Amino acid sequence: MFQKSNLVRKIFYGNIIIFIFCVLFPELFNIFAIYPFDRSEFEFYQFLTSLFTHAGPLHLLFNMLGLLSFGPQCELDLGEKKFLVFYLIAGFFGALVQISITPNPLVGASAAIFGLIIYATLLNPNQKLMIIFLPFLSFKAKWLVAVFVFFEIYAAFYISDNVGHFAHLAGGLIGLITFFIQKNINIVK
User: Fold this and answer.
1) First and final CA of the chain: distance in angstroms?
2) Cβ(34)–Cβ(107) below 8 Å
3) Which CATH class is domain 6-182?
4) pTM for the whole thing?
């Protein structure tokens, strides 16, 4: 699983360790979550700590499945240093957008993971993906991810929940931009 993905392994274990610490010391959750700028709880370090903090075991599970599914091919293509910069920028930008739009605190690696999903899909659009609950069905990445993107756009504007839909979209945008920069694709001619 981690043979060629040294950084993905470290990020994976970092998320697991922070989750365990937050379970053992619940007050850490509120310290590590990122809050909107106008809240007294806001601290700049939360841009980093919120990336490794998750709201529960399912939140952690799905983000780590995304990391393990898409992270290695991104790390292999970008190299460790660029991968780390990309992952952090996608996460930071996602958090920045989300806390600028909504009044709620935010946790999770979802923005960074969505960036990985977009990058990996652009890298290999015809890769076959399976839905975890429907393993007998497979879809080309470009179609499955397109559905996911359209759902996130819809959810960001029409579903009132505590999910960081704007963060997901912002992280995905960083994935798109990073791909174009990495592949030297000029979309403005």
Assistant:
1) 41
2) yes
3) mainly alpha
4) 0.92
